[in-house]
Amino acid sequence: MTRAAILAVLCLATTCTVQLGDGDRRVVARELATGVIVPTLDDVVVRAAELAESLQRLAIMPAIPQLDAAQAAWRAARVPWKESDVFGFGPAKDLSLDVAIDQAVDPSKIELEVVGTETISEAYVDGIGANRKGFHAIEYLLFRGNDDAGVLASLTTDPLAARRRDLLVAYAQNLERKARELDAAWVGDYASRIAEPGSANMEYPTIKSVIDTVVNESVFQAELVADARIGKPLGTASGGTPQPVLEESGPSDNSLADMASALRGIRNAYFGTRNGIPGKGIGQLVAARSPALDRDVREAIDAALAAVATIPSPYRTALLELRPEILTAHDAVKELKRLLATEVVGTLGSTLKFNDNDGD
Fold first, then answer.
1. Rounded (10°) CA dihedral 43, 183, 190, 360
2. Of 28, 71, 102, 304, which sits with the fewest C-beta atoms within 10 Å of its C-beta?
3. Residue 141 falls within a domain, yes or no?
């Protein structure tokens, strides 16, 4: 019988007193760094490069097939990027790369760029504010709900069409650059800090500090999906009046896909894999102490993903109709957050910290 099986028998269906050794937790830290975080960011770079290439083709030959391909490339790039949300600490924050890549934009600021006179280049985009570039600036110029004809007209017959095409290309080139910088920061140094905590490691002097960081970010991301991505657009902060303008990716109607990707990111951190099969992640540590809790968390992740998948598209319409599926999803993600913030934190002896983005 394996060690894990013996522990499961000893623990039965309750949290037991098995002490998690540093070795067990170090295995998890290394697996998360090398098997989940870096490969996910590698994919972000690949998809960002594909997006840049597709927008270059659209700029050269603006037509519906090229527009469709560019829109598909944008959606594809969102998948690994949103999965990486749960690893949004370290270089993403330290180098402000998260906001440069995925900040909410101010449409009026983008329109100022459209009517501006500055020469558009990737270097120029790099120097402007985060609220007028990144994923959502591209989205603003590339999508108008179902009005692809209107988008194409803005890129062809409109007097400012050429400048919009130039902006799209430069925005995508800058996004690719920032994705490469983030990936390089992890590959070059930060992954080893996660994988090898110790007294010489200023960020992570102990293995507990690594596990605490991942657990805290998982809690925060679950809270963000529940409260900011579902709750606020639903009207939980506005007396029950739906606020579709607050959805994350409105012009593309990609908000539900974004939520699902963010939840898969939490699952990836918990499983220690990217394929949906439990491996050497946070869940392995939970299962060693409480097989029942591990089962509950896995079921809660599945339930949250399934509930989000049942919300009908377009999300804006579902919000305005106050579809019950949205409340079901809100409750399911809140339950996942509760389990992570209370049961998992308690079982692993983690310290739940105040997140700088609390209240977003």
1. -80
2. 71
3. yes
* Tens of pLDDT, residues 211-246: 999 999 999 999 999 999 999 999 998 888 999 999
Kindly state the tokens that stand for 337. Answer: 């957050």
Can you tell me the distance from the alpha carbon of 325 to that of 346, in angstroms, rounded to the nearest whole number? Answer: 31
Q: How many domains in the chain? A: 2
Residue pair 40/80 in contact by the 8 Å Cβ criterion: yes
Domain match, 220 and 340 both: yes
User: Helix or strand or coil: residue 315?
Assistant: helix
Q: Kindly state whether residues 232 and 338 are assigned to the same domain.
A: yes
How would you class 180 by CB atoms within 10 Å of its CB: exposed for 0-12, middle for 13-18, buried for 19 or more?
A: middle
What is d(CA 35, CA 39) in angstroms, rounded to the nearest whole number?
A: 6
Tell me the per-residue pLDDT of 324-355, one tens digit each, with 9 for 90 and over: 999 999 999 999 999 999 999 999 999 998 76
What is the end-to-end Cα distance of the chain in Å, rounded? Answer: 47
Q: Are residues 270 and 336 in the same domain?
A: yes
Longest dimension (CA), the chain: 73
pLDDT at 145: 86
38 falls within a domain: no
274-310 pLDDT, tens digit each? 999 999 999 999 999 999 999 999 999 999 999 999 9
Q: Report which secondary-structure segment, H or E, holds 42.
A: helix 38-60
CB 337 within 8 A of CB 223: yes
What is the Cα–Cα distance from 154 to 330, expressed in whole angstroms? 37
Exposure of 289 in the CB half-sphere (CA atoms within 13 A):
19
DSSP SS3 for 146: strand
- What domain range includes position 237? 3-26+206-348
Closest CA to 41 of 5, 8, 88: 88
Tell whether 148 and 9 lie within a shared domain.
no
Q: According to the model, what pLDDT value does residue 279 have?
A: 96
Spatial distance between the Cα atoms of 263 and 248, rounded to a whole number of angstroms:
15
Task: HSE, CB side, 13 Å, CA atoms: give it for residue 295.
Answer: 8
Q: Does pLDDT of 169 surpass 70? A: yes
> Are 89 and 144 contained in the same domain?
yes
Structural contact between residues 344 and 293, judged by C-beta atoms closer than 8 angstroms: yes
The reply to whether 89 falls in a domain is yes
